[in-house]
Design goal:
The complex is a heterodimer of chains A (212) and B (254).
Chain A (H helix, E strand, L loop, with lengths): L1 H7 L2 H26 L6 H12 L3 H30 L16 H25 L8 H8 L3 H28 L8 H28 L1
Helix pairs in contact in A: 2-4, 2-7, 2-8, 4-5, 5-7, 7-8
Chain B lengths: L1 H7 E10 L7 E11 L4 H14 L22 E2 L2 E2 L21 E5 L7 E4 L2 E3 L1 H10 L19 H11 L6 H5 L6 H12 L8 H14 L10 H5 L7 H15 L1
Parallel strand pairs in B: 1-5
Antiparallel strand pairs in B: 1-2, 3-4, 3-5, 6-7
Helix pairs in contact in B: 3-7, 4-6, 6-7, 6-9, 7-9
């Protein structure tokens, strides 16, 4: 246990936790987006995707529990880092200017993170824990996005997610030490592309669903 | 010739953070009139201090030593920027020609929980020394100077190590970091030793000892904002932070 605690109580250890859990979320979101794209195939395509997914049975439950564990770890570790960073400068500058290093993503990481957490809870209540008796998932989704407020909330959340990932993606590679003049510029670009794919890919779904 | 002289001199308003005392609490305003643009920033403060002394007032305390940009003693936040607005310069190498007549400059000390304020703009940067004492060295028996080039080191590696070794420990990375993290400093010190054969034997112990000491001294956590890299007077790259992360992972896994 001492090896474990000695490693993860350090600042770099905690950042590694953020990087690895964050990378798993990006992988999960890729699969989630790929699945959701079946919505463009219409009601039957989406419902059959959901049905197919549920045939995995206990595997899905294990993955869900795994994700829950990763979310708790990511949020708790992130909160500790956020708190420690506030403590590290008890007296703020009266004037502080960026020298050009910070980005919208990096400057808002903890805040966008908490917003995403709130959104995930909202999202799970809407769809995951929704009463599914006598209805299909598609009907639940269609009913939710008939409400313009839901569309606005979902699009706003996806913009926040894109901003979060725009910094998170290259940052996690930097944390795990994967940095080289050969591929770091590529990772930076990939981070922007992935955040756009998530933002646009997820963000357009509510609009599309409300139109069909 | 008077016109030329007039042209080269500027008038500034300085708002300098002064030690809490019976008369002041926070930013004090001073008028720096007739400042030559050939002066360095520190020479400008010298002029202000001479005037304050003649008026019987307490001069502004600030750190300085070589005034050649190589010792790492000077430093302050000028309008929210560590060592002022110019890239790759220490405060002593920042010249007044970079400011315009009528500018207002807010001058504050480095702010970090780890750097205690001694007086006015002088902060205690000995926490950086403590990190070095924790492992930023190699253990060798002192003796006669070893033969040059006795250990073959590729030129490129030597250059990369030297780039990291240009760190003068001024603390601008900590001061400019939104999280007051010392990762660029530690990254530079870890890098220049880890890259060279002489640093390899103790590499595993060194990285843990230095990171633990950095955390113990309450520096913040790096969030890859890259402000440090942009403000470092020696323009040390965050590539060194990635190398520190690699060294950390190596020491944990192998």
């Amino acid at each position: 246990m001492s090896w474990f605690t000695n490693t993860f109580k350090t600042s770099i250890g905690k950042k590694l936790i953020m990087a690895v859990t964050g990378l798993s979320f990006i992988c999960f979101l890729m699969a989630h987006l790929a699945g959701n794209l079946t919505l463009y195939g219409g009601e039957n395509a989406f419902n059959s995707y959901v049905e197919r997914l549920h045939t995995f049975g206990p595997v899905i439950t294990i993955v869900e529990l795994g994700l829950l564990f990763l979310v708790i770890t990511h949020v708790l570790t992130g909160s500790i880092l956020f708190y420690q960073n506030i403590l590290a400068r008890p007296i703020r500058y009266k004037v502080y200017k960026s020298a050009g290093g910070r980005s919208l993503g990096s400057a808002t990481m903890p805040y966008s993170g908490f917003i995403i957490l709130a959104f995930i809870i909202f999202h799970l209540i809407n769809f995951h824990f929704a009463d599914k008796t006598g209805t299909t998932i598609f009907q639940i989704v269609a009913k939710a996005f008939a409400n313009p407020l839901y569309i606005v909330i979902y699009i706003a959340a996806m913009i926040v997610l894109a901003i979060h990932i725009s910094h998170a993606f290259w940052s996690l590679f930097q944390t795990i030490g994967a940095d080289h003049p050969k591929y770091t510029p590529l990772i930076r670009i990939a981070g922007i592309v992935i955040s756009l794919i998530f933002g646009v890919g997820f963000g357009f779904l509510p609009v599309y669903v409300s139109l069909i | 010739m008077t016109s030329t002289t007039d042209k080269k001199n500027i008038n500034l308003t300085l708002k300098i953070w002064r030690q809490k005392g019976p008369d002041n609490n926070g930013l004090e305003t001073y008028y720096a009139d007739d400042i030559s643009t050939d002066m360095s920033f520190l020479e400008m403060i010298d002029v202000i201090n001479e005037r304050l002394t003649l008026e019987g007032k307490d001069p502004v305390a600030f750190d300085h030593d070589c005034r050649e940009g190589i010792c790492g003693m000077c430093g302050a936040m000028i309008n929210g920027r560590a060592h002022g607005p110019e890239k790759g310069t220490t405060l002593c190498q920042l010249h007044m020609r970079h400011f315009a007549d009528g500018d207002t400059l807010v001058i504050e000390p480095w702010r970090s929980r780890a750097f205690k304020i001694i007086k006015d703009l002088v902060v205690d940067r000995s926490p950086l020394d403590k990190i070095i004492q924790a492992g930023g060295y190699i253990s060798v028996n002192a003796g006669g100077a070893p033969d040059a080039n006795a250990i073959p080191i590729p030129q490129e590696t030597a250059e990369t190590a030297m780039d990291a070794a240009t760190c003068i420990g001024c603390g601008a990375c900590v001061a400019s970091c939104p999280n007051a993290s010392a990762m660029l400093f530690v990254g530079a010190k870890i890098s220049h030793l880890a890259l060279l054969p002489q640093g390899k034997p103790e590499a595993m112990l060194r990285v843990m000892d230095m990171v633990n000491e950095m955390d113990r001294l309450c520096f913040g956590n790096c969030a890859n904002h890259r402000e440090c890299e942009a403000e470092c007077p020696k323009e040390i790259s965050i590539t060194n932070i990635a190398r520190l992360n690699r060294e950390f992972i190596k020491s944990r896994l192998f």
